[in-house]
Amino acid sequence: MSDPKQTDGPTHLHEERTFPPSEEFAAAANGTAELFEHAAADREGFWAEQARRYVTWEQDFDQVLDWSDAPFSKWFVGGTLNACVNAVDRHVEAGNGDRVAIHFVGEPGDTRDITYAELHQQVQRAANALADLGVGQGDTVAIYLPMIPEAVVAMLACARLGAPHSVVFGGFSAEALHSRIDDVGATLVITSDGGWRRGKHSALKPAVDAALAVGDTDVQNVLVVRRTGQDVEWTDGRDVWWDDALAAAAESHEAQAFDAEHPLFILYTSGTTGKPKGIFHATGGYLVQTAYTSSVVHDVHPETDVYWCTADIGWVTGHSYIVYGPMTLGATQVMYEGTPDTPHQGRFWEIVQDKKVSILYTAPTAIRTFMKWGREIPEKFDLSSLRLLGSVGEPINPEAWMWYREVIGGDRCPIVDTWWQTETGGIMISPLPGVTPTRPGSAQHAIPGISAAVVDDVGQPVEKGSAGYLVLTEPWPAMLRGIWGDPDRYKETYWSRFENLYFAGDGAKLDEDGNIWVLGRVDDVMNVSGHRMSTAEIESALVSHPKVAEAAVVGAADETTGQAICAFVILRSEFVEEADEVGEGENLIAELRNHVAKEIGPIAKPRQIMIVPELPKTRSGKIMRRLLKDVAENREVGDVTTLADSSVMTMISAGLNKGD
Ligand code: PRX
């Protein structure tokens, strides 16, 4: 594990600018200073109050937290609820059925407005269709869909039945999909013929067919949404069209309430070892915290706001802040299928203008891309509907923060830089927009009800002005309940580094005012465009190629994507000469990049692959990534005294310069 002081991150931490909220914003904000006092005085009482405020329980809970089997937690013990009823039915019952739930914007320009009443009809039919295919409480369902409303309907229909869903991002390959379907034991896969991407059809069903052709799964059926109309291969008896299944299903579905601890979903994320971890979340605590944070951090006022979270449903941000948080509040939101530059670089701003978006939640990598494209583009659109901006996924550098504030937010919108993880389920560290004077580049402080600290090597809080490890010091409602099927790995990964503290894997610094600055990962996890990528997973994909003997992967600083994947590869000796031939080295590198895309997905393709004769290792055989990072970032190579063979770095540099 590296020293937190050596991680990438904001370059100047002596930022003194602060931006208090306007009086008008503060007066109407959901998050107030009293929340901090209440939570500090009575944590459990505080969470009980949020649980009853934001969620409708079929049966009320009788204990807020059971921590007797720590680090395994139970929240809202004895309570029962249905997540789908909370996100949909009760808004219709409350007379808000005509409110738009989703303004869908397809990439080719097609749009659909879906009200809560329509969503209610669809989730009932979908739940019945799933039940007709044999899905019941406790069965797991894999979802592999583009950003279309059916993805939301599918997730909510699973929740309605008590069938945990496992959404797999559409950019993952057939191999990655297979391992997730297999690990989670899914009996049904919901997919589509394809989706729209940069003006073209991109296919999804072939990846499902290929994943299932590998065998070894419990999948009985594949439900296929028609999105693009492209031809698909069909397996009779297994494949069913979504539209046909819904049309044949009964109209109404009576939802049953489940225990607060019933698993709601499993979502795979990269860790420090090769195998992705299935993070699983329970229904009650997760719903409470996502709804509470949508209210106090995103300041959603469901009657008046138009909210837009630009994340994909395949990541936790899409789960918590497209589906469960905002919908539990009954919000109106935009859902966009495509990329920000299709058909032009102003597409996002055109959507903000057309739909009168008031709250925008996006990632620093997108903001840096917009900066690169130039302020003239957003300046062509009317962005005056915006009143709050959010950032998530990676540290936001103060320059990007200021640009976001000035150019997008017209100097008037508070920015919430929200730190959290797949594992935390909901936002943990963030300014409260109506209370906290914001500071460019810093996520600032734990929100009311959450306790975070920055500690040194032995778990003691660091002084102001110092760096250390980011930890969470108390359990929280939306915390992961474990790693699917592997309780020991849960304890080992998060609870073994420091006693009784959850170790998030991030380095952080406290500034002189006590604000938290998240510096980035201190383990072998990279953050590429806000997506977590494991160096070990990409290394193992590379060495599975027959020409590769050894591989080391590092995340190198990248102006736009935060980090970029750089791989160093040693070839098997019989292929070394081939790679030296003119042009062949480049072909081989392309072959290896495509191999990684096939094994994991296009998102994992290394930006750069360097073929090297050796890798720098310590005497105990550990690869010294720090030195490789120096090479990848074009820096002078640092201290090499602990290398087993100090000439290795000279060999690497000489090899790399050969072509110059
Ligand atoms: O390193 C932190 C970074 O993203 C990691 C969590 O990744 P994931 O589980 O994919 O969830 C991403 C969306 C919540 C964290 O360990 N991270 C997330 N938000 C921030 C951040 N780093 C700095 N500032 C943030 N606001």
Would you kindly provide a written description of the structure presented here, covering whatever features stand out?
The protein is an alpha/beta fold. 33% of the residues lie in helices and 23% in strands. It is built from 21 helices and 30 strands. The strands form 9 sheets. The chain has a 7-stranded mixed β-sheet, sandwiched between helices. It has a 5-stranded parallel β-sheet with strand order 7-6-8-11-12, sandwiched between helices. The site of adenosine-5'-monophosphate-propyl ester has 22 residues, from α11, β20, β24 and β25.
> Strand fraction band?
15-25%
Identify the overall geometry.
Answer: globular
Return the average pLDDT rounded to an integer: 94
The number of strands is 30
Q: How far from one another are the termini?
A: 35 Å
Rg of Cα set: 24 Å
Count of helical regions: 21
Bound molecules: adenosine-5'-monophosphate-propyl ester
Helix amount? 25-40%
Secondary structural class: alpha/beta
- The protein's oligomeric status is single chain
Q: List unreliable stretches of 5+ residues.
A: 5-11
